[in-house]
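Notes for week 9. Today we move from apo structures to complexes. The key idea is that a small molecule is not decoration. When we ask for a structure prediction with zinc ion present, the ligand SMILES becomes part of the input, just like the chain. The input block below holds both the sequence and the ligand string. Read it once before you look at the output, and try to guess where the molecule might sit.
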Amino acid sequence: MGSIVLFGPPGAGKGTQAQRIMDQTGLPQVSTGDMLRAAVKSGTPVGKEAKGYMERGELVPDQVILALIRDRIQEPDAANGVMFDGFPRTVPQAVALSEMTDISHVLAIDVPDGRIVERICGRATCGNCGTVYHDTFNPVPASGCPCGDYQEKRRADDNEGTVLNRLEAYHQQTSPLAAWYDERGVFHRVDGDRAIDEITTDLLAVLN
Ligand SMILES: [Zn+2]
């Protein structure tokens, strides 16, 4: 096996599945967002360069991110490959990545947009005790929150319009990548509209 790329729309449970794949395969997760923040914090040369772009509100150029990845995959724990999360986002990035490391599997967790909207919209949190509720799947008990002082909190971006916009951006970004990886025979779609354990089973079956 080589390295893995994991795709999934917001609200598809990608974080949970990423953790399970790491536990089962031993591959370390490589999140370019985390790596950038760490490099900036520790003041490495690449970090300093990245910081300049971020402070100017500009996108960090591909060559900076690719330099971080190049260093990361030289580390001993990456000898058997890594699991990329949040990268690549464009076909040129995928091309550059393929010149650096062998991508053996691209896994896309597939959930219909309508189901994502259902899952994300209707979320509410008790501001007093932190319990997370959902209007449909986990409603606040008729007797109120067990903490005795239910204070409803909803995230402003948990509404249908915002979620649909984020999903649209996700599809626009991933569909060329899916096609590019599909041509290379490494793209796999897994039905993510099921129980968490079933999704994990399918993802691991693709990898074995
Ligand atoms: Zn409460």
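The chain is about 45% helix and 15% strand.
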